[in-house]
Design brief:
alpha/beta, four-stranded mixed β-sheet, 3 helices, 21% helix
């Protein structure tokens, strides 16, 4: 059995302009931590830290090329309590500089969702999932673990 605990503690986004990205995320309502510096910004994202770090510096730190482009193979998600909340959240994101990629709509799995991207093209899904209601802290409640 591996020693890795199954949890995520940080999500770090490689961005081209930390100041611009910080302003974008603050306009969405994220609050920067006092631990932030010119080279990195930290936000509390409900128990996970969302960090903004220079794209080239992040690639160098991970020892990978920085020239990646196109679909990155992942999306961040923000779940809400209703279809109307999806549409409202997408409008608010666009109003502060997001690019609307897919308007809110019924989706194949039985929920309702849409997508926007931040100034660096990172994908965000805004979703209403009737099968995983949000608890009092806004966290999705997963069904019991399979046996």
């Amino acid at each position: 059995m591996p020693d890795l605990e199954p949890r995520v503690t940080f999500i770090t986004l490689g961005v081209r302009d930390i100041s611009r990205s910080r302003k974008f995320y603050e306009a969405l309502g994220f609050k920067a931590s006092s631990a932030s510096q010119p080279s990195v910004t930290f936000f509390d994202a409900g128990g996970i830290v969302l960090a903004l770090f220079g794209r080239d510096a992040l690639a160098e730190d991970a020892s990978v090329p920085a020239d990646g482009s196109g679909f990155s193979g992942f999306a961040l998600a923000h779940n809400v309590n209703s279809e109307g909340d999806v549409d409202r959240t997408l409008r608010e994101a666009v109003a502060v500089g997001a690019n609307l990629l897919k308007p809110g709509q019924k989706v194949f799995w039985g929920g309702y969702s849409g997508y926007f991207s931040d100034p660096d093209g990172h994908l965000w899904e805004v979703a209403y999932n009737p099968f995983m209601p949000l608890d009092g802290d806004g966290r999705p409640t997963l069904p019991e673990r399979a046996a």
